[in-house]
């Protein structure tokens, strides 16, 4: 039986944090044995907001090295950089011509990031179409992403269905693949907002490469409520619930089990234990990361990834060009 295709990506826009890891990258690793996985570093998405070109090149390699450091095995999954496969841009344009401004204006990420500004970059507006192209190029069945991306997957499905209805069966219908605990990791300083790379306060997030002292500071000062009872209640107690989710993912323990374990203890002990858990979890990832980042293997893996991804992407594009009536010479 052929394995289902999986596709996902991460933007090289800064330090990858626990939200990116728990919501997306951990799933990437978990799926690679049973499915046919393709993981991208989506540099074309990242230029929807201004980037320093030198820095972008470095961060692109950082994310590739982190993919491997967290456990993505290039022998099992394809790892490549989006801009090295131009079919992403080509399909994105064709899908743009089949999308409506109304549906794009409803995307909450666009609304959040543009904040109604007339000078918001057009790329920010059409970002979900490029994401749809990324997914549809690889006949993707499952898209492992954090739940902030769910709306974009819905749009991808709408575009695939519209195209299939108009031209006949062309694209596989993709599905969002989320997790039950940690699908949206919240900011440590304000647990009503998602943890994000671009937030100004560095203690709002824990990056995968944070050193132990920074992790300790960020967790110990994380916003919690004043009643000191450890209970999972994301609406009523968002701060402690967020920390419970991180604890659960990093120990493999069920939330109920952790709540029972800390019955009668205050937040202080719980936070101290969480600091140790997070630091122990990150230490081997960091060690592996620094090795890979300096090795020649990284570029070799990315080149091989580009070759593999290009072959699949071109196969899809031949089908698409034929369907829309582009000549083949
Ligand atoms: N807080 C989060 N909780 C769970 N999953 C998250 N993801 C992002 N934040 C969280 C998931 O991480 C994957 C890669 O995200 P991205 O780099 O493509 O884009 P992003 O959502 O823009 O990342 P940030 O960190 O939130 O950046 P800014 O600060 O620019 O907004 C995706 O699967 C995403 O769902």
The fraction of residues in strands falls at: 5-15%
Q: Give me the CATH architecture of the largest domain, please.
A: 3-Layer(aba) Sandwich
Name the CATH class of the largest domain.
Answer: Alpha Beta
Which structural class fits the helix and strand makeup? mainly alpha
For the report, how would you describe the main beta sheet?
A: 3 strands, parallel
Radius of gyration, CA atoms, in whole angstroms: 21 Å
Low-confidence stretches: none
Task: Explain what this protein looks like in three dimensions.
This protein has helices at residues 18-31, 43-46, 53-69, 87-96, 101-105, 108-114, 122-137, 150-167, 212-220, 238-251, 255-261, 267-294, 297-324, and strands at 5-10, 36-41, 78-81, 142-144, 175-177. With 329 residues, the chain is mainly alpha-helical. It has two domains: 5-182 and 296-324, 3-Layer(aba) Sandwich (Rossmann fold); 202-290, Tyrosyl-Transfer RNA Synthetase (Orthogonal Bundle). The strands form two sheets. A three-stranded parallel β-sheet has the order 1-2-3. α8 links the parallel β4 (142-144) and β5. α3 (53-69) crosses α12, α4 packs parallel to α13 and α7 crosses α8 (150-167). The model has no long low-confidence stretch (mean pLDDT 96). The structure holds adenosine-5'-tetraphosphate. Adenosine-5'-tetraphosphate binds next to α1.
